[in-house]
Records
---
Amino acid sequence: MSFEKLAKNASEIISEEELKQKLKLNRPLRVKAGFDPTAPDLHLGHMVLLRKLRQFQEEGHEVILIVGDFTALIGDPTGRSSVRPALTHSEIEQNAKTYQEQAFKVLIREKTKVVFNSEWLKALGTEGTIKLLAKWTLARMLERDDFSMRFKNQNPIFLHELFYPLLQGYDSVFIQSDLELGGTDQKFNLLVGRELQKEQGQEPQVCMMMPLLVGLDGQRKMSKSYGNYIRITEKPREMFGKIMSIPDTLMEEYFRLLTDIEEKEFQSLIKEHPMKAKKLLAFEITKALNSESEAQDALEYFQSVFSERKFPKDAEIINVNPGRYRLIDLLALINSGMSKNALWRLITGGGIKINGEKLIDPNLEVDVKISLEIQLGKRGFYIIKPQS
Amino acid sequence: MSFEKLAKNASEIISEEELKQKLKLNRPLRVKAGFDPTAPDLHLGHMVLLRKLRQFQEEGHEVILIVGDFTALIGDPTGRSSVRPALTHSEIEQNAKTYQEQAFKVLIREKTKVVFNSEWLKALGTEGTIKLLAKWTLARMLERDDFSMRFKNQNPIFLHELFYPLLQGYDSVFIQSDLELGGTDQKFNLLVGRELQKEQGQEPQVCMMMPLLVGLDGQRKMSKSYGNYIRITEKPREMFGKIMSIPDTLMEEYFRLLTDIEEKEFQSLIKEHPMKAKKLLAFEITKALNSESEAQDALEYFQSVFSERKFPKDAEIINVNPGRYRLIDLLALINSGMSKNALWRLITGGGIKINGEKLIDPNLEVDVKISLEIQLGKRGFYIIKPQS
């Protein structure tokens, strides 16, 4: 029973048999997951992993989150890129805190241990580092897909990059993990940890690879760098709306990986009432990451604005001086976060309505004498109010 | 003038122009040479380098010998080979001492500084190590001939092996060397030091590569592992005899790299009196590594024994009980360092003479009543003396 629950949805487990044996040990397993403290902005892709970790916690196991602060402290030492500057200790601690705040929207705080790998990696020293390097051959390291691709394409691989998988694997040795969880793209790294443990005479960790969640574009994996993501910390109404915008083809996988709804139930719902299914999906995810009442509010908001096309009663009010404005200038007074260029494109692209009427000329003169209902794009609602 | 002397016989200098500039600085240059403290048995191949270092000393420069104790302390960490066990500190110190005793047969003691690279390499730590790794790409490291060959042939390369050239290069950065000397097979490693210095904003070291001395077989470079070498610490008579045994084709190069005799002089001597030339070569090298009187003794010994085929008067005397012996058993009483098997092969191969007569049956009975002159191989002379 426990095995069925824990193995569910995994893309691959190395090995299932070992996991079964470990679950019979009658002690809490040490479940490892690593994270990079340079980018603490978690999204639904991370939620897939966090939910799996949560399931282990519910079965009585211990989750160990490893903050990879060591490499972050070094930064990208190639000196060829300013993209990854070294972080300071306090920045890393702040990032780790931010990360935890997000992760604990899914994880059980008391059953989660957070550790920083600089603790043991610093202690390796020159000697320990060389001994660790000596545990792996170049040929084996080049089996990693991205390395072999870069090598084949003659893109530079710096020697320290070949070392990082070993450092991550050494984390497993140090914390004596029973299982490590990661995305399918992490398989190679997870296996390095397993091998290093074997060499040290430890029981090797089980490697559990979870599917990568496809992003809003329906094409690529959800990732900050592709801009196709939904933050875990998204405001409930925003979150709900964004989930409603995913292609229908993703619904099944999102139900499977992000909710507790049974396969049979969501399958038939998607088939018979796709709109209802998507609202249920959005409701369930929003609820899990916030609260039931917030999810309820988001649902109602969505229905009133989008399904019934009503202007929301609680739109933000912007006070302006009465008078005549160019449309573009008026919109710039709204603190929407959009640049004037972006607003210009939005207007000419037909994304602006005033009192329900689409306006496409940025230079149009608007007379502000009474309150106006402004819609910016799909989900920006504001009331411009003249006030002298 | 100084440049001509110092550049003489080098296979390659990177670059000659830089060396000229450095010689104009009017300060002693820091001349680096590294050595591996696992094998302190120096031979004439090393003498080529030591002589060049000596020339720098004679011109007022400082020689810095780097004892590579750091990697020796680690040993071969692959754990796949018992060939290179880690050495202890006291073994390394002993080896370094033995090395110096040998090196000072050529170098000027007061102008030589000996340093151990563990001093600065230990201090690198995990962080410094990673930063050093980040300075080099895999592709550049695979330009080294032996790496590229092994990679091509799918022989394993362990990751720490890719790191060692960087450690050696870092030595140059740390000691701020002006010039590094090595064999032509060390070119890649020497250039790594040069590049790392550039990156640190130092004036890069000049790399001077010396030719590799061909060994006694006339084929391969002189090396302990090929057994084709003459030790720097060889006894004078042995040394003289061994030099006399080199193929005539090597004479020129030996004169050039191991003596101060002028090119014109040895060229014509080799042409006109090859035997005389070889004796001069043997005399000069034996003298340089010992003393003039020892070289003179060795010359006379060689002439009496080999040129005039006389039995040497001062052969070692072996006292035995009078009586009848099998030839093989009699020879085994001589403390020649040869096993019974080796003696058997020597006898049957015609390498044994008693009183000038070749005996080829190991089972022959020999009656020891009076003293016998025994010749073992080419250079083993003993007198068997019956004594009751």
Note: Chain A touches chain B through 37 residues (CB under 8 Å).
---
Amino acid sequence: MQLVFLSGGSGKRLWPLSNNARSKQFLPLLEAPDGSMESMVQRVVRQAKEAKLDAQITFATNAAQRDSIINQLGTEVDIVAEPERRDTFPAIALAASYLHFAKHCPDDEVIVVMPSDPYTELGYFQTIGRMAVQVQRDAAELVLMGITPTYPSEKYGYIVPAQTADNTAEALPVSRFTEKPTVAVAQELLREGALWNGGVFAFKLGYMMSIVRKYIQSSSFEDTYARYKEFPKISFDYEVAEKATSVAVVPFTGKWKDLGTWNTLTEELSRETIGNVLLGDTNENTHIINELDVPVFCNGLKDTVVACSPDGILVCAKDKSETIKKYVDNLSLRPMYEERRWGTYKVLSDLPYSDGTRALTKSIMLRPGKNISYQLHHHRDEIWTIVDGEGLFVLDGEVRKIKRGDVCIIHKEQLHALKAITELVFIEVQIGTPLVEEDIERFDYTW
Amino acid sequence: MQLVFLSGGSGKRLWPLSNNARSKQFLPLLEAPDGSMESMVQRVVRQAKEAKLDAQITFATNAAQRDSIINQLGTEVDIVAEPERRDTFPAIALAASYLHFAKHCPDDEVIVVMPSDPYTELGYFQTIGRMAVQVQRDAAELVLMGITPTYPSEKYGYIVPAQTADNTAEALPVSRFTEKPTVAVAQELLREGALWNGGVFAFKLGYMMSIVRKYIQSSSFEDTYARYKEFPKISFDYEVAEKATSVAVVPFTGKWKDLGTWNTLTEELSRETIGNVLLGDTNENTHIINELDVPVFCNGLKDTVVACSPDGILVCAKDKSETIKKYVDNLSLRPMYEERRWGTYKVLSDLPYSDGTRALTKSIMLRPGKNISYQLHHHRDEIWTIVDGEGLFVLDGEVRKIKRGDVCIIHKEQLHALKAITELVFIEVQIGTPLVEEDIERFDYTW
């Protein structure tokens, strides 16, 4: 079995912890069984393994999330990053092409596609196992997971099973789909035995590839990747589920939540506070998450969430946490903290010059053995002060060893690279105009 | 008339905006008549001038506050900084010695001593004028201001006037003092016509100097200053007011508040928000003060104060704001932001080395024409990256001009100084062990 996790979204609803560079599924806020903290993607991958599904895992994602996935899951998962953001059908089509061309999976291999951020339990993954059995038995071209509804929600899509005499069947044939109904319609759907569409799809690889070939006839993954824009911008539901000649649904009854707002997320936090927090003695149902070094003091709060990160500070009544997105969407700030493949950086200061332009100071951490690519900037000088560790610094082809206290001065147009021997920490001051991440030209370098 | 403002205190109750380097009276949170923001000390000095008291102003303070006073009030006020913290009597005795020896004020000059942080109105300063008249007429050795009480408070000291047939008298003889009574006693005091002791004392300089000479016989201010520890650690109330043979009180009825907690301070703020704040649409009686560059978003809050500074973040129900001090007293953090005579600095990062020691990164602003003293450090290197402006850098006696993009590398034991030609902004990385402000040796340098 091949398990494909869909990982996208900017997750502005969990601002300031999530931003364009760190979606909600990468926030290390959940408690793992061993007491350490894990993110939503780390949790689902752990659960998939615990369910002994004997599945290989591929993440279908975008370029911005690649580094976060590698940092959090290492090399045990494959990553297919779409070259541009389109919709769920193209993303799944690209992942299928990868499994077909690059991993040489056979046409009758079962593929299960699922979101990377459901907060759920082992039974969910056992249901996936039962869906795979149905696909193998050719019960239908497409097998979906149907979540047993707990209330007539307006937020979800519904899967309506066809009437069947055999209620003990493992898979029910699907009669139709209904998107986000009114409460009245939802109540009617519940009476009909409808299930929530949890976005989990199982099918044989050959079936999906036959649909892929309707848009791109290709003989390699690289070619499909290069022609990615030829896929239509359409969801998997519309392009595949709605058009399939036979669809079945396997029900799942159990814990299943979207931790997409502070209100729902804090319900699942095992601790009231994370980080440097000082609590007064009269807080009630209040959660405080502090990613800053300085302390947060709270007292006399009720039903409130406080979240602090280098991007900003949130103080919000929990029942208002759904309103965050519309306000925060107007903020067009650069991320002040990012996890990258090679390590992390934090913006310390973004000072105005007297002439209105700006100077940027970052604290950068490079993991042992990792390097920053050989690069140059056309519009800025960079000055690095090495604070800790040892590494190799290359400037216009000349290599020198650097350590704590050393200074690297890189003028614009000078080629430079840096490799950490031990964990390397340095302060970077960028001076120039304009100061944008895009002012970078990369070159090959052999270490 | 000589007006002496007493300025001390660490003001932990207004954490995180106030700290040991910035007491509450220097926070620029009040709106001046011209719409600009002013601090408590700027407000009282402005009001004293508006009352046309024809008074020269001296601040009796400590070394830590000297730079803040110069920055906020310029050179229009004199400053007497005690060499060590003792109590109010020694502080006032030192200020009196300064007026006697250094300013050569005559013995019959009227001195009025008052706190630097009352939130009050013009009538208060007009009352000071009437107190001075009483001192000139020798109505008593010591004339106090009595605030007409508005409720039987347990927090204040009370002045009980002697029974007098003449209720229209400008000054009433004082019968006794009572410190912080119970509510029941306070109610009785109110019936007796007692007044709150507002800590405003008026006397002739010669009277005070006769008390000073009981402890230190001296012929110069410098000598008195050097012998400061010979003054007893005692309050002015106990040493002078309680022992005086004749004390009179001049009543003041009007606005008089101590803005010493977030609850009382926010009542007087003209704006709900200060700084980079994004407000949702359902906040009620909530004040947000943000001194950070990143945004604060608040929604669904009621009767709450949010305050953010480089030192930390406070989120507190207003009626719990008196509890802050006991929690924050346990924080023994260095100030992350300071105003100095020469400019300001902010700690950007306090990174741990792999061996457990630390590296400190600061952003420093030096005002035009100002300089950092010629100094050396025994335990740290400093690396300065000039971000904006022009200046003169001295290293072991060699002067060079520096500007944006230049780097100054200062090894331990190297003598260095810096003077700003235009406003100079630079990033300082300190590397060494231990990293403490005390690792500094200062030398003379003639620019």
Note: Chain B has a mean pLDDT of 93.
